[in-house]
Amino acid sequence: MLAGLAVVGFSVAIVAPAGLAMSASEPAHASVTTAYALAARDAQNITVSVHGVTPTAQSRDAFEVYVTPKPTPTPEPVVASSDSSSSSSDSSGPGPLFYTGGGAPAEWMAAAGIASSDWGNVDYIVSRESGWNPNATNSGSGACGLVQALPCSKVPGNGYDPVDNLRWANGYAVGRYGSWGAAVAFWSSNNWW
Q1: What was the pLDDT predicted at 85?
Q2: Looking at residue 52, what is its pLDDT?
């Protein structure tokens, strides 16, 4: 009988927990750990070791993006196409290399190496000499370009290229008058420089 009671006791011990487990409510999903949950938790715990630098905690709530603007390239002069129907009796050679590129006065002055503090003085003179037209030509004297270089051949490169013309003018203003401010003062008194 003791043996029978032991068999019944063992059966109850084995079957009862299984029956209780089947009758119990389903366990909460929060206590279930999946491979994805483990990987997501581990992905946030990144350790970076850099010698000579103290690491600082980074906030992952927001971020800023700063894009460095690309500098505007200096416009290259483009030679205007010549008319092939011109007379062959013209022995003076090809005409002037007029400027057909783009750009703006600030870009031209910066490319010519003129200090931004002088831009107002340069604008004063160039506005009166050519109205910022790089192809301006004085039909009487032959002066050319933004600052009306006379003769046009003084300008190294191309007298109609605004950067070449302004680079030459910068040397002229500083060499002859000492500064762009003094060149403006002279121009104001004489209407030429």
Answers
A1: 46
A2: 73
Kindly give the parts of the chain with pLDDT less than 50: 84-91
* pLDDT recorded at residue 101: 81
DSSP assignment letter at 137? B
| CB-based contact 97:158 (threshold 8 Å) | yes
The amino acid sitting at 144 is C
Query: Would you call 129 helix, strand, or coil by DSSP?
Result: helix
According to DSSP, residue 144 is labeled: B
Phi, psi at 137, each rounded to 5°: -135, 130
What contacts 159, CB < 8 A, 6 or more positions away? 96, 144, 145, 149, 152, 153, 165, 168
| Cβ-contact 72, 153 below 8 angstroms | no
Tokens for 95, please give them.
């005409």
